[in-house]
Design brief:
The protein is mainly beta and 604 residues long. It has 5 helices and 34 strands.
Length: 604
């Protein structure tokens, strides 16, 4: 039987029957693969790494992926309205299209805009998220200037289901099943409907102050097969089909990713992996004023070789290729173009006593701008079992998007890639089950040849994409974790940053100088969690030199067992009903509440 205090917390919280929470920074030692393209404990990575687990997601009960990301160090988010609205994620002050997003290893951003549609990824379809802050172009090529966010799709072991209802006429349902022994399989489907609220406020010159709703259906499917003692095969897929309303019409969206991976133990010291991927991002705007359709198809291939040179040295050699096909069709402009990129990379990881060294080099040949070289060096020192320091320097780049290259009247086929140089100093202390865990990172990033819209008139087209700007971002990320006994856990993270456009001496938009998140978790003896969080963001600059005021949010969540493997869930978002903006002229939710039921077998 749960302790009396656990029952009291549940009774008090279920009375209002609402709740919300943030995924906590785990103090365990999860294995990550994104930081170096090989499996390693997160605490041993020579980078700032965060892992969000399925357990974190179910404790938080997020409405969107932004709810999962916004409370973590170095990450800022914006959204133009409610669920399904255009969303952006910034990392370490870099632009939203300078953050590489992978779904099961597949490059998932739209080639037309360069950004990933976070708004169309249902949290019900996520198994875990790995966040690596800092440049990773040496391993992944274009886009990884600010860092990499890799999302792994949901994998079930048995049946699972959940239903939820709440504010803004919001309803959710999900169901799935997984199993198998030598061949593991998993399928999961989810649906969300939200009546929403008016995306734009009067100051944003709303055309129609009605509610802007959202509907989205999604599914994931995974297959993992052991072919032999030395070979395994995996197939992972994600599909999302959505419809978002806005003042002048609606946008129909379609997103897909498919990843096929074959792993071979060629020799005891030589592991090979072959992978192929496909990503699709379609948006069809139905509007009497400006109907249009934008489509992206991306095909990717990767061949990776992990070679154990000795007990202390591992060499990774690989080659990857992608081709982007994109099209835009409207009454006033049309294009249909493609680009491709071939990259070759090498990464050496050496452990010399308490010293750890990583050297990386990559060459890319892009169909539009030619060859480009990136490199990275990182050094770490383990002073004690609990105290680790590391320093890293790396270069990165972002290739121009298809819109920047080919959009009629705006595109410029002579564009060069955006380039960056990054320096980082990191500190890690603790990380065990007992005692505090402290992680800190100082970073400095210089970005050259930023692509910006430039006035080039007079003429039939007055604006064009040009490499004209430079930017600098610098800052400090501090993450603290502390457990109190077996049931209580406190976490906090602080981000201080200065994201500056050096060309015109202005602040980069929608990135606060300071951000603080604090959370405390109570885990019940009989299962379930109670979580309370505080999110604080300082003022930010937006487009048009508009200043967005700082804001603070309090969110609560509860997951409490009713029967074996059956949990009641409740969340309150924005408990104090604060007015705030993530983007100038666009509304955000007020106080909102959600309740639901979840069937979640033990061990999932």
């Amino acid at each position: 039987m749960c302790q009396r205090i656990d029952a009291w917390i549940a009774l008090v919280f279920l009375t209002p029957a609402f709740g919300s929470a943030q995924a906590q920074e785990t103090i365990l030692k999860p294995i990550v693969v994104t930081a170096s393209r090989e499996a390693e404990p997160a605490d041993e990575a020579l980078a700032a790494v965060t892992v969000i687990t399925r357990e974190d997601i179910e404790a938080q009960q997020p409405q969107s992926v932004l709810d999962l990301l916004r409370g973590h160090a170095g990450i800022d988010v914006s959204r133009n309205g409610g669920l399904g609205s255009v969303s952006s994620v910034f990392m370490r002050g870099a632009e939203s299209d300078q953050v590489l997003v992978l779904i099961d290893g597949v490059r998932a951003g739209a080639a037309t805009t360069g950004t990933f549609s976070f708004q169309h990824l249902n949290p019900a379809q996520i198994e875990r998220i790995e966040i690596v802050r800092g440049p990773r172009s040496t391993l992944y090529g274009s886009d990884a200037i600010g860092g990499v966010i890799q999302i792994f799709t949901r994998k079930l072991d048995g049946p699972a289901a959940a239903v939820e209802a709440g504010s803004y006429d919001t309803y959710r349902a999900e169901a799935g099943y997984g199993g198998g022994e030598r061949v593991l399989y998993s399928v999961n489907g989810a649906y969300v409907h939200s009546g929403g609220f008016s995306a734009q406020n009067p100051d944003g010159h709303s055309f129609d102050p009605d509610d802007d709703g959202y509907n989205e259906a999604s599914a994931t499917a995974n297959l993992d097969a052991v072919l032999s003692e030395s070979a395994s095969l995996s197939l992972n897929g994600w599909h999302s089909n959505g419809e978002i309303e806005f003042d002048q019409g609606e946008i129909d969206t379609l997103n897909d990713t498919v990843a096929l991976n074959l792993a071979l133990a060629t020799l005891p010291a030589w592991q090979q992996a072959f992978s192929a991927g496909y990503a699709r991002d379609d948006q069809k705007t139905e509007s009497a004023d400006f109907p249009s359709e934008a489509t992206t198809d991306r095909v990717t291939f990767n061949w990776q070789n992990d070679i154990r040179l000795s007990a202390a040295h591992q060499l990774t050699l690989g080659a990857d290729y992608y081709q982007d096909d994109g099209a835009f069709i409207s009454d006033f402009s049309t294009y249909d173009e493609d680009v491709n990129d071939l990259g070759m990379y090498a990464n050496l990881r050496s452990a010399l006593g308490r010293n750890d060294l990583q050297l990386g080099l990559r060459f890319d040949e892009h169909s539009e701008f030619g060859g480009h070289v990136t490199g990275q060096i990182a050094y770490g020192r383990e002073f004690t079992d609990s105290l680790h320091l590391y320093t890293a320097f790396g270069t990165a780049f972002k290739a121009p998007t298809l819109n920047e290259l080919f959009f009629p009247g705006f595109g410029n086929p002579n564009l060069d890639p955006e380039r960056s140089r990054s320096t980082e100093l990191g500190f890690k202390y603790g990380g065990g089950a007992a005692g505090p865990s402290v992680r800190a990172s100082l970073f400095y990033i210089e970005i050259d040849d930023l692509i910006e819209t430039v006035f080039v008139g007079p003429g039939p087209f007055d604006f064009q994409a040009r490499n004209v700007e430079e930017a600098t971002t610098k800052g400090l990320e501090l993450v603290l974790d502390q457990s109190f006994g077996a049931r209580w856990h406190a976490s906090a993270n602080l981000t201080w940053q200065d994201a500056h456009n050096d060309t015109d001496d202005t602040e980069l938009v929608r990135r606060p100088d300071q951000k603080l998140t604090f959370g405390i978790t109570r885990r019940f003896a009989c299962g379930g969690t109670f979580y309370a969080e505080l999110l604080l963001n300082s003022e930010r600059t937006d487009v048009g030199d508009v200043e967005l005021p700082g804001y603070g949010l309090v969110n609560l969540s509860l997951q409490y067992p009713l029967l074996k493997n059956v949990f009641a869930e409740a969340r309150v978002e924005n408990l104090l009903d604060k007015d705030y903006e993530l983007a100038a002229g666009f509304n955000t939710p007020g106080r909102a509440g959600y309740v639901g039921l979840r069937y979640s077998p033990v061990g999932q």
